[in-house]
Amino acid sequence: MVRVKSRYLLCEVNVSDRSRLLLLDDRAVAATVKAAVARIHGDYGAALCSIRFSVKYLNAHTGIVFLRFPKKCYRLLWSALPFITCIETRGQKISCFLNCLHVGGTMRTCQKFLIRYNTQQLHRMLPKCKNEEEKQQVQKAILNCSLTGRNKEAFEVESESEEDEEEE
Amino acid sequence: MRRADKEDEPAVYQRVVLKNASPYHYLKVCLVLEDESTRLSAVELKQFIVTGLNSLYGEVGAALTFDLLKYDEDTLTALLRVCSRGLVKLWSSLTLLGSYQNQACAFRVLQVSPFLLALTGNSRE
Q: pLDDT (tens digit, 9 = 90+) per residue, A81-119?
């Protein structure tokens, strides 16, 4: 029927060293995106960005961020995202780039995609596991991934496995 | 046009309507400054218009290609050519350009046409 429609962009923040990733917070990411859009698309872009833009979800452990844009102009604002080179937060500059994984019409579809994507990443990590207990952990994490009432479990479990992967 | 028509009358009236008639649009603009005696060179004028596009449409707008075909320094009248898709962006940034080196200014758009020849005849004067 008559509904206000938005587009949710699922982006991944890639940094060179993962310890800096934990410093991210949603206001810093929002400010960076607005500044980039203002630089690339000028006053017109900044005005489009101010209507219904927000950072809906940010996971500092995995670097996943959900951005919401209005449906009319999401492609224009999307085109400014590759020009982001660093995110400034609390006086520190984290050099990074944003990788867009999925565009969805609602948060729920983005979440479903994210869970499928995370299970694929875990499947890819399984052959790389060096010892038996890591394999057990990864397999348990894969079995746990599902869209139930406890949605956040999927995200947290994925982050543990990824951190284990880094420690190797 | 049926074959029967063609055989009867050699010259048939045809009306051709072109939607996107020309790839370029031509604008005749005049810059009006607060201080009447300031003069700009052609390069300075183009740079000024590019800064206007930059402030309203950002880097992408400033990359819009337009040409300054003719420029009269004494009356500050210029003939601009822009791709038809960029006409709205250029015209709106000319409208919102307000100050040149701390003095108030305005761009008066005198004529716009997709055909250069149409700019020679002005029914307003």
A: 999 998 888 888 888 889 999 999 999 999 999 999 988
Q: Which helix (H) or strand (E) holds A31?
A: helix A26-52
pTM as predicted: 0.77
Q: Smallest CA–CA separation between A12 and chain B, in Å? A: 25
A89 and A157 fall within a common domain: no
Burial class (CB in 10 A: 0-12, 13-18, 19+), B39: exposed
Nearest Cα residue in chain B from A80: B60
The pLDDT, as a whole number, for residue A151 is 44
Taking an 8 Å cut-off on Cβ atoms, the answer to whether B56 and A43 are in contact is yes
**Host domain of residue A163:** 129-167
Q: Is residue A1 over pLDDT 80? A: no
Taking contacts as CB-CB distances below 8 angstroms, the residues of chain B near A38 are 58
The answer to whether A37 and A124 are in contact (CB under 8 A) is no
Q: What is the mean predicted confidence (pLDDT) over A46-59?
A: 89
Task: Give percent of chain B with pLDDT exceeding 70.
Answer: 90
- Identify the residue with better confidence: A18 or B7: A18
| Count: domains in chain A | 2
Partners of A14 in the beta sheet?
A97
Residues A105 and A141 sit within 8 Å (Cβ to Cβ): no
Looking at this predicted complex, what is its ipTM? 0.74
For helices A152-167 and A107-125, the axis angle rounded to 10 degrees is 30
Q: Residue B64, SS3?
A: coil
Domains of chain B, start order = 26-114 (3.30.70.3250)
Asked if residue A42 belongs to a domain, the reply is yes
Give me the CATH number covering residue A68.
Answer: 3.30.70.3250
8 Å CB contact of A44 and B54: no
The residue ranking higher by pLDDT, A125 or B106, is B106
